Amino acid sequence: MRIQKLSSALAISIVFHIIIAIIAGFHLGTQELHFKNLVKAEMVLLPQSPKPKVRKPVVTPVIKPTAPMRRVFVAASNSSPQARMLSAPSRSSITAVVEQSQPMLHGPEKSSARRAPGILPLSQVGASRSPQIVLNPPNGAAYDDVFFKDSGTNPFIDTEDDPFSTFGMDVDTASYTVMRRFLRDERLPPPEAVRVEEFINTFDYNYTPPANEAFAIHLEGAPSKFGEGKRLQLLRIGIQGRIIPDTDRKDAVLTFVIDVSGSMRMENRLELVKRALTLLVEQLRPEDKIGIVVYGSDARVILPHTSIVNREYISAAIHALAPEGATNAEAGLRVGYKLALQNSKPNSINRVILCSDGVANVGQTGSEAILKEIRTYVNEGVTLTTVGFGMGNYNDILMEELANNGNGSYAYVDTLNEAKRIFVENLTGTLQVIAKDAKIQVEFNPETVSRFRLLGYENRRLAHEDFRDDTVDAGEVGAGHSVTALYEIKLHENAEGKLATVSIRHENPDTGNVTEVNRSISTDTLKGSFEETTPAFQLAASVAEFAEILRGSFWAQEGSLEIVRETLEGVLTKTREHSERNAELLSLVRKAQRFKEHQKEG
Question: 31: exposed, middle or buried (C-beta count within 10 Å: 0-12, 13-18, 19+)?
């Protein structure tokens, strides 16, 4: 019996130890798997290349944290992102939401691709594909931080692989004004803040407007003065929108949604908003109406829609604005759209205009929560314009995505003169849309063009088949606005014949009819030298190179601000038109040049 008891105890002991060993092995295996996942989370230089989503937000706009902690979501794969907390000291910084991947020779909609010739490591240059790093700090009051998204850099594409280039039109100009603000504050802008197309589209190139159609297409090409020099040709595509006289503008029902949170007290942001609105009221007609919604910790209507006949009453409401509370942008937009829908008029301009520094720290605050609210109103005829103010804790990502999803435009105001440009000089263009879902598709001739690269428009790219898919969202263009796109192209040796066909497609906002027009350019129309081109061509090329250098583009790593400055000085001697803005550009280039030289010395 004693032996049996000992045997039973021994058996129980053995089973117990086996169970312990199994548990320990499972625990060690879990730790090893967790360690491997962390390693994968660190190795994000070679993401997969899924098809990009057209004009849909691919990252979550950043909301500022209060705690000295930064949360970074690193996508280890497309299906299973790994998250980790990185402790960082609370400090003033510029935070980028980065999208980078391998430069592609195929179009953006193809899943397989080859590496572009002569490129840097993948972490340094790429056409955007899928997000790698998304900063989404916890909800809370803002601190001194600025948020931008890096959409990558377009690569050269071999025409044998893909002769098409397709993208949505864009008339935003905020990136240029943000750059100007940085330089005036004695700082270079972060590369992520530079969107080349917004620099280019800030300037007027004196395109001849169409006689009857919505758009006129203007083409010009010559050897490039920048990039690889005479090895490349520079093709400029200019799209000029129909001009509508101010007297023929539709009546406007405008709903201003104004951020009066505590952050708007900084840098006199709210005071600049008030002065900008006062300028606008002076330009509107008696038939127009204005309503005002403010939001801080909550949202409320302070001015029901009121005819411009009652200017004094409207002005009193504007001057009474004062900063208060936190920032509930979601509530402000919801109340603003409700007011806009209640007072919308058929055959009129029904627009919500958001004036904010982009901070949103109360409510759901995530991008999808706010964007979902906006998308439900677009089909009801109410569009959205976003106007940014301030810089200390500015959220460029959120402001751009709000405008994109609201079928409107995005501008940034740093001075009263910029407010005049938007609300006085370009009022009709700011308010009245002449084309919805406007798209551009360029088909290059593989017999003459070896490869091409589009300068900018990285976050406006469309799949080629979406060009004639009228359900796909694209860009909206206002009356009198122009859109300019530049391509660097490499020709085959002794190439002759057609270079490319440019097609544009858009919907009439009044009738819903869709129109497509095209125009071609041939080698015999190319100028023999850069110096033979028009001053407007040289201006556009200089602006693009300036932007390429500021954003640290791989293709401009040998670029020189000295050459940009010299070219601009030549442009100013050839034309007096728009000299004030061009002269300002020249001064900004000189200032950036000094900062760059100081960086090298440091």
Answer: exposed
The pLDDT, as a whole number, for residue 234 is 98
Per-residue CA distances from 588 to 126, 546, 569, 573, 593 (Å): 27, 10, 13, 18, 8
Q: What is the token pair recorded at 68?
A: 């000295």
411, 431, 451 — which closes off a domain? 431
Backbone angles phi, psi at 103, to 5 degrees: -60, 135
Which pLDDT band, with edges at 50, 70 and 90, does 406 fall under? very high
Asked if pLDDT for residue 120 goes beyond 90, the answer is no
Same domain, 478 and 577: yes
User: CB count, 10 Å around CB of 215?
Assistant: 23
156 φ, ψ to 5°? -75, 140
pLDDT score of 10: 53
pTM more than 0.85: no
- Here the CATH number for the domain that contains residue 445 is 2.60.40.1230
For residue 3, being part of any structural domain is answered with no
CA dist 271 and 250 (Å) reads 29
Angle at 399 between CA 393 and CA 405, to 5 degrees: 160
Residue 579 has pLDDT above 60, yes or no: yes
3-state secondary structure of 581: helix
Domain around 582: 153-244+435-601
Nearest to 354 by CA among 364, 343, 368, 340: 340
Q: How many CA atoms lie within 13 A of 553 on its CB side?
A: 28
Judgement on whether residues 285 and 237 belong to the same structural domain of the protein? no
Among 384, 416, 431, where does a domain finish?
431
pLDDT of residue 27: 52
Report the pLDDT value the prediction gives residue 45, as an integer from 0 to 100. Answer: 34
Residue 27 lies in a domain: no
Query: 36 φ, ψ to 5°?
Result: -65, -40
* Percent above pLDDT 90 for the chain: 62
